[in-house]
TrEMBL record:
Keyword Acyltransferase assigned: no
Name of the protein: Methyltransferase domain-containing protein
Ranges of residues in domain Methyltransferase: 47-136
Keywords: Methyltransferase, Transferase
Gene source species: Aureobasidium namibiae CBS 147.97
Family: Belongs to the methyltransferase superfamily.
Gene Ontology BP annotations: methylation
Length: 249
């Protein structure tokens, strides 16, 4: 499938109830707890951005890690799944008889410059990325005009001059840096052992902020998936990869 195709995602989410990419909440929970705790000393409550939330239960499970659900902002490319998740949360609260504010839910194309600029400036302290970078890496290169009008170092709109195509993860990193506060943790669960290797080897594109100057890769942990207890065939272990990137000051 084309993971950059909105029609694919809307069609999928129309039929799909829930789906967990890669691993469950238990894998991410200690890392998210630590990242949120690190930012709890700030003047305001840590703000959590969950990108590409999809139909995962993670969106609601993270509620247990914050003081108020309004600290969690779940976003997705598909408006279909955002509306379903909003309804699912309301139904959950009603069934539990809980009086609680809901999480925030927004439809957002993370590769759209106009949507990112309209979405707002630096606000988030923790970014959760459960295989969203994987999906975006499979999308087509993004056509942008340079100098780029999202500048995560000195924000603002500037005149366009030339048009180039850019690797989509470069655009994602620039856009997330624009939304992140200095010191923000970008926590990524990926199937790829080299998802962010390009940060070291990137070739500078004049007029485009360099992702490697916006994010430092602090941790890369290999996570072995537990074997299926019903599988009688010996198979090599399946490895997933957890990355922690830090927004530069």
């Amino acid at each position: 499938p084309s993971f950059g195709d909105l029609e694919y995602w809307n069609t999928r989410f129309t039929k799909e109830d829930t789906f967990e990419w890669l691993a469950d909440f238990a894998v991410l929970e200690p890392w998210l707890k630590q990242a949120i705790a690190e930012r709890s000393g700030c003047k305001s409550r840590p703000q959590v951005l969950h990108i590409g939330c999809g139909s995962s239960a993670l969106s609601l499970q993270v509620r247990d890690l914050v003081d108020s659900p309004t600290q969690i902002h779940n976003v997705d490319y598909s408006d279909v799944v955002i509306e379903r998740n909003r309804q699912r949360e309301n139904e959950m609260l009603r069934s539990l008889g809980v009086q609680s504010e809901p999480c925030r839910w927004s439809n957002l194309d993370l590769l759209s410059v106009s949507q990112i600029l309209d979405f707002g400036g630096p606000e988030y302290d923790v970014i959760i990325d459960k295989s969203t970078s994987d999906a975006i890496s499979c999308a087509a290169d993004v056509s942008v005009r340079l100098p780029y009008c999202v500048n995560a170092i000195s924000s603002g709109r500037i005149s366009h001059q030339t048009e180039v195509t850019v690797y989509p993860l470069d655009i994602l990193a620039v856009h997330l840096a624009y939304l992140a506060r200095p010191g923000c943790s970008w926590i990524v669960l990926s199937y790829s052992a080299s998802r962010f290797s390009y940060l070291k080897d990137e070739v500078a594109t004049e007029g485009l902020p360099r992702p490697g100057e916006l994010w430092n890769l602090e941790r890369h942990e290999k996570i072995e998936q537990p074997p299926d207890p019903n599988d009688t065939v010996h198979r090599p272990p399946v490895m997933h990869h957890l990355y922690v990137l830090r927004r530069t000051e």
